[in-house]
Design goal:
This protein is of the alpha+beta class. It is 34% helix and 26% strand. It is built from 13 helices and 24 strands. Helix 12 links the parallel strand 21 and strand 22. The protein is globular. It starts with a strand and ends with a helix. The model has no long low-confidence stretch (mean pLDDT 87).
Length: 505
């Protein structure tokens, strides 16, 4: 049976939309379906770290999101009205032009839908996945209304309750990490003399549980509180909001603080889960369908966007037939090999942060409020925290496509370097990667390396000259940079040809 589309993406959240946009950038046909009646107007995620902004930039979907966002790059922790710790976030000098942003996931999704439309795609709402069968040539999916879709590949980006994962029979083991958290979006009147402002996030430690307040665009605030004592069964949004109103002055020590104009309220518990596999034949998982963890650190949407970009260029090479035979299988297997270890590390880190934040024993509170406070007030610890949460450090050098030698090593992220095109015009490396590879370097040997790359990648590779020095690359005539801004290999034409033959032949 002939495929109607190369890839069927299930889920029109940020990960599914990012994957669809990236595939269309690579010239791959895509169909996106989602069981929801329409786009979400509320969301739990509200922070995009620098690496997430980079992915959106390479998708040409960043646009004016930085201008819409709130530049609240500090977290101040209080014990009552006494400030104990202030963490300042910012660019740790890792060569990125894409800023971290406090922005609603709903706005990120809106920008991705606009970009998808520019590329000729659109989500199909009210289209649930009811079942599928895969064979050697593709996947036949059945939608909830009885329609069938024939696709070459099926990508499950449909969240923690993923129908794709369940129908594929892929295990999703994990544990419950915490009891209930309250989440409320609304406006705050902090009362006179509170010192609470919109320059950053504020958090309060309390024996009954932590409470945090993050400024959001449009004069909104997002409130998050751990409240294991709240025992209402399936509470309404108003009941959740009323509970937040009750505990706000108790936890913050601000008797005059008031919550009003609530736009959303929700209740959730924290679970930690990781899929046994990211791939089953022609079925692939990404984002929350593959991993779920605590919201602390803002790693959820960030990790999912990275999944989408990593998967897209590999799947595109397979769809276009550049990676053939056994190499196609090996190349797609590198998706799990590169991304699942990162998810494992994120799960560990977010679980540890959750346990610290909800510490209820006297010893746990002492360690958090006395010991960790002193540690995190150190400037070098704050730089390390920014570095860690940004995910700009992510490298695949230990994966099947990685390598050794002088930095940058194969698998390392390459920063957003200032570059020149062959005609001398100025550009940025990441701006040129949008659906393409890049050969970066100077001299005749680099020109030959570019021709070697073109023999395998065709017009999907561009030639660039670095406007300044690239650390560790002086001895290499050329750097071959992947579409996700990680180094594929470096060297002369024979080196590039050898790497491409090994990965794709």
């Amino acid at each position: 049976m002939e495929a109607e589309t190369a890839v069927l993406v299930v889920g029109a959240g940020p990960v599914g939309l990012a994957l669809a946009c990236a595939l269309l950038q690579h010239g791959v046909t895509v169909r996106v379906v989602d069981k929801a009646a329409g786009p979400a107007t509320t969301s739990r995620a509200n922070f995009v770290h620098a690496r997430g902004s980079e992915v959106l930039d390479r998708l040409d979907a960043l646009v004016n999101l930085p201008e819409e966002s709130v530049r609240a790059m500090t977290i101040t922790t209080y014990a009552g009205d006494r400030p104990m710790m202030r963490i300042r976030f910012g660019d740790p000098g890792l060569g990125t032009a894409a800023p971290p942003m406090v922005i609603s996931q709903a706005r990120v999704e809106a920008h991705l839908r606009e970009r998808l439309a520019d590329l000729g795609g659109r989500p199909e709402w009210g289209a649930a996945l009811a079942g599928f069968q895969q064979d050697a040539d593709g996947v036949t999916a059945v939608l909830g209304d009885g329609r069938t879709v024939r696709a070459g590949w099926l990508a499950g980006c449909d969240g923690t309750g993923s129908a794709v994962r369940k129908l594929a029979g892929i295990g999703f083991p994990g544990v419950k990490v915490s009891e209930r958290f309250l989440l409320v979006d609304g406006r705050l009147d902090p009362g006179s003399g509170s010192g609470l402002d919109r320059s950053g996030t504020s958090g309060w430690t309390h024996p009954d549980g932590v409470l945090g307040a993050m400024p959001m665009p449009g004069e909104q605030w997002r409130l998050l509180a751990y409240d294991a004592a709240f025992s209402a069964d399936k509470p309404s949004e108003e009941e959740i909001a009323e509970r937040m109103r009750q505990i706000l002055p108790e936890r913050t020590g601000l008797p005059g603080i008031r919550l009003h104009d609530v736009t959303w309220a929700s209740l959730f518990s924290v679970h930690r889960r990781l899929a046994d596999a990211y791939r089953d034949g022609r079925v692939l998982l990404a984002g929350d369908a593959a991993h779920v963890h605590a919201p602390f650190g803002g790693q959820g949407m960030l990790t999912g966007l990275g999944d989408a970009e990593n998967l897209a260029w590999k799947l595109a090479l397979v769809v276009h037939g550049v990676a053939e035979g056994a190499a196609a299988e090996r190349l797609l297997d590198t998706y799990q090999a590169e991304r699942r270890p990162l998810a494992t590390a994120v799960l560990r880190g977010s679980t540890a942060a959750t346990k610290v934040n909800i510490a209820g024993s006297p010893l746990g509170r002492f360690l958090r409020d006395q010991v960790l406070v002193r540690v995190f007030n150190q400037a070098w610890v704050q730089r390390w925290t920014t570095y860690t949460t940004s995910q700009l450090w992510v490298s695949y050098r230990r994966g099947p496509l990685g390598g050794r030698g002088r930095k940058p090593r194969p698998g390392d992220r390459i920063g957003d370097l200032a570059c020149r095109r062959p005609d001398g015009s100025r550009t940025r490396l990441h701006a040129e990667l949008r659906g393409r590879w890049a050969v970066l370097g100077d001299g005749l040997e680099c020109d030959a390396a570019f021709e070697a790359a073109r023999q395998r990648l065709g017009d999907r590779v561009v030639r660039l000259h670095a406007a300044g020095p690239v650390d560790g690359a002086a001895a290499s005539p050329a750097l071959l940079v992947r579409p996700d801004a990680h180094l594929a290999c470096k060297g002369g034409p024979a080196d590039l040809a050898r790497w491409l033959d090994g990965a794709l032949a």
